[in-house]
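REVIEWER CHECKLIST
Item 1: Sequence provided? yes
Item 2: Single chain? yes
Item 3: Sequence as submitted:
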Amino acid sequence: MKKLKRSERLVDMTQYLLTKPHTLIPLTTFAERYGAAKSSISEDLAIIKDVFENEGIGELQTLAGAAGGVQYIPKLHKEHAYAFAEKLCHQLEQPDRILPGGYLYMSDLLGQPSLMNEAGKIIATAFADRDIDVVMTVETKGIPLAYATAAQLNLPVVLVRRDHQVTEGSAVSINYVSGSHKSIHTMSLSRRALKEQSRVLIVDDFMKAGGTIQGMVDLLGEFNAEVAGVGVLVESGAVESEERLLEDYISLARLSDVDSKTKMIKVTPGNYFEQ
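Item 4: Structure as written out by the authors:
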């Protein structure tokens, strides 16, 4: 790479770090990339570190020693996350989102990359300090959020299927109870998709009583895997506490009430902001 001015080097270095979250980068990588001394690189990183932390972009963690380096940990300040949650709640409260049966239309929001990237960064922030191997979700609507979260954590995504696909090879299947009518469904996961004893972050777009997520938890038990955390975009607040199958989870928004007659929807920031 050609010799850059310091201002140019700072811009390029910042971009490099942002595209490689949770990746340990040796100082020699930057020194060779820019033809600069390690002392100069360290000074540049100190500037970037201050900006990242002051602006709520994330943290730069430095590891000393021959095998050391620097890694970028995406972390969003609570106030920035709360502003996003309020915006999300406002969008979810639009009267035309009410579907027959009191369901809420969310597919348009789940299809917005910028919105999912922001939500994914908040969930990644909540679990940034946990030891996680993979992000898991069940097809299909939770996929955008799962990939957005995994991108911030620099982790692979594992998809649980509702119907086993022959292209997945041999799989483990279980039955689970979901929905207000307590109906029985099936989910499956390819044996090749997840290593045994993996630590898994479960991500989903919506949770009512938690039957689908509990199904994923049970499925992980078949792989001797461990649940490292659960993050959902929206939870239903209308569920009685004794009906909730999960206790340890974070949500970004809470659907408190849907009135089909008056077309009124009430959504508030989720339990992540109560912690």
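Item 5: Key structural point noted by reviewer: The longest helix spans residues 38-54.
Item 6: Recommendation: ____
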